[in-house]
Amino acid sequence: MIDVDARPRCATGSVLILSGAFVFASANAAVTASFRRGFVTIVTAYLIRCVAVYAANIALVALRDGGAPALRIALLRIERPDSARKSLARALSGSLMGVFLNWSFVLLTFADSFTIFKGVDTIATVVFARLSLGTAERLTARELLCGASTFLGILMIAQPPMLFGALATPRDVRPVTANGLALAVVAGALSAGNSVLTRVLTRAGGPHEVAPALLLSHLLVVGFCLFAALSLAGEASGVAEAAGWEWLRFRPPSDATDAALLATYSAGVLAAQLLMAEGYQTTRAGIGAFLALTELGFVFALDALVLREPTSWLAAAGTAVVFAGATGVATG
Which of 234, 296, 298, 243 lies closest to 44, judged by CA? Predict the structure, then answer.
């Protein structure tokens, strides 16, 4: 077990993670609007964002620090072999998480899948961080209580049919199957591993400290290779033509509107990934997991206010609970 020095939580780190959650939600609102236009698929969005964000990430480093650091980012150079291995593991866990989560959406309702995913993600992050990073990751009773209330708000927003039954907002209802449950659980565990490795690799002054821009390049290269391979396999096998598996198809943007939405999505992913990684430098992984739950609250607000999605009093109340719990965690 690695025991790190206990460091006071920096309020700036919490603000950065909350900001990252908001930007992620905004980016997802843009890509959701593109999906609803009926042409762009999940694989399309992933592959385009990987290329666009990779190029933009290198360009930002070149403008800020010069050509040599930018080349290092482009070539994924990390001096310490153990840090390089951890960065690769982080990139793999983050990319595989996307695969398993999208696969679970095929078998479960979005609400059931996302709730299981975030529940496992949050609890596993707290446990993994405590086991791997020692006493510095210990959460106080107040932080745990506020974090638990945040997850309660997520349940109220998502209203998974398996828990809410007739009280849930009417939607497509599919039973919770063992395969779907397993996929969502694996996705949550992979997301937790990604969060803890982000904390390990970005912790200010830590033995594995790596620049957020370098971690982002690793994630993008691995993610592109993985989703490109899945898309090719899906097309070659014919699976991409089956109902529910359309997300495996690659289809370029059909017009300027789709291109603009995907550009907005890519810019949001770039900003959010960097904000999150910067935030984890001074924020414990468990706290970061609770704060990241606010993404669904932001998504709900954007859906209702921007995308004009139907809502309910229960989801609105859940959003208020999420932000109240996050405020408690951030100020604890």
Answer: 234
Report the candidate in 9, 60, 100, 68 with the shortest Cα–Cα distance to residue 217.
Answer: 60
Q: What is the dihedral of CA 291, 35, 262, 201, to 10 degrees?
A: 30
Query: DSSP per residue over 41-81, as a string?
Result: -HHHHHHHHHHHHHHHHHHHHHHHH-HHHHHHHHTT--SSH
Q: pTM of the full predicted structure? A: 0.81
Contact status, residue 13 vs residue 201, Cβ threshold 8 Å: no
DSSP letter for 245, please: -
Neighbouring residues of 174: CB distance < 8 A, sequence distance ≥ 6: 107, 108, 109, 112, 180
Is there a contact between 326 and 290 (Cβ–Cβ < 8 Å)? yes
Please, are residues 250 and 231 in contact by the beta-carbon 8 Å criterion?
A: yes
Task: Return averaged pLDDT per consecutive 10 residues of the chain, 332 residues in all.
Answer: 41 87 87 83 92 96 94 92 94 93 79 78 87 77 83 76 65 69 91 92 82 93 95 93 88 90 94 92 87 80 67 76 81 69
Both tokens assigned to 25: 């939600």
CB 18 within 8 A of CB 330: yes
- The span from the CA of 92 to the CA of 222, in Å, is 7
| Strand, helix or coil for residue 9 | coil
Whether the CB-CB separation of 254 and 84 falls below 8 Å is answered with no
Residue 154: CB partners within 8 Å, gap ≥ 6? 115, 118, 119, 293, 296, 297, 318, 322
Rounded to 10°, the helix 178-202/110-133 angle is 40
Q: Where are the alpha helices (DSSP H) in the chain?
A: 11-36, 42-65, 67-74, 81-107, 110-133, 141-158, 161-164, 178-202, 212-237, 256-280, 285-292, 294-305, 313-331
Distance CA 166, CA 189 (A): 30
Contact predicate 181/116, CB 8 Å: yes
Tell me what pLDDT residue 310 has: 61
pLDDT on residue 318: 80
